[in-house]
């Protein structure tokens, strides 16, 4: 059973917003400093990248260009595929669970 994309996103956004308010935006933003030791590191395991074409982040100016296969391959050398799912937002696993399961299953079968 597919969920309604808009309502799933709004429920999730509300939950995320509540967590930010509870934790405090300063602490959330500061947590990025913890990743400093890994700046410039590469993801060196077999990978498949899946994103929804309606994802707000994916549609941020400059992001689509950085999520194409050739650009991502520089940072993820074992990247096998980039899948942009049509008609799907940020929560691809909730919006298209059967399709996501099949993509993941097919990917894992290689190993």
Outline the structure in words.
With 111 residues, the chain is of the alpha+beta class. The protein contains 6 helices and 2 strands; from the N terminus they run ααβααβαα. Strands 1-2 form a two-stranded parallel ribbon. The longest helix has 19 residues, at 5-23.
Order of helices and strands: HHEHHEHH
Q: Would you count the extended β strands for me?
A: 2
Largest sheet: 2 strands, parallel
Mean pLDDT: 84
Residue ranges: pLDDT <50 for 5 or more in a row?
Answer: none
Structural class, by secondary structure, is alpha+beta
Tertiary shape: globular
Q: Work out the helicity level.
A: 40-55%
State the helix count: 6
Strand order of the largest sheet: 1-2
Strand residue content: 5-15%
C-alpha termini separation: 29 Å
What is the alpha-carbon Rg in Å?
Answer: 16 Å
Itemize the secondary structure elements and their pairings.
Blueprint: H1 5-23, H2 25-30, E1 47-52, H3 63-66, H4 69-75, E2 79-85, H5 92-95, H6 97-108
Parallel strand pairs: 1-2
Q: In a few lines, what is going on in this structure?
A:
With 111 residues, the protein is α+β, with helices and mostly antiparallel strands. It has helices spanning 5-23, 25-30, 63-66, 69-75, 92-95, 97-108, and strands at 47-52, 79-85. A two-stranded parallel sheet has the order 1-2.
What characteristics describe this protein?
111 residues; 6 helices; alpha+beta; single chain
């Amino acid at each position: 059973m597919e969920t309604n994309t808009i309502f799933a996103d709004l429920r999730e956004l509300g939950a995320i917003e509540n967590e930010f308010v509870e934790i405090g935006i300063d602490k959330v933003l500061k947590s990025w400093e913890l990743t400093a030791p890994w700046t410039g590191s590469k993801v060196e395991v077999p990978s498949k990248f899946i994103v929804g074409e309606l994802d707000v982040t994916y549609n941020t100016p400059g992001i689509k260009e950085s999520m194409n296969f050739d650009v991502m391959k520089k940072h993820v050398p074992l990247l096998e595929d980039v899948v942009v799912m049509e008609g799907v937002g940020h929560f691809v696993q909730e919006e298209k669970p059967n399709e996501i399961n099949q993509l993941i299953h097919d990917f894992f079968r290689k190993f």
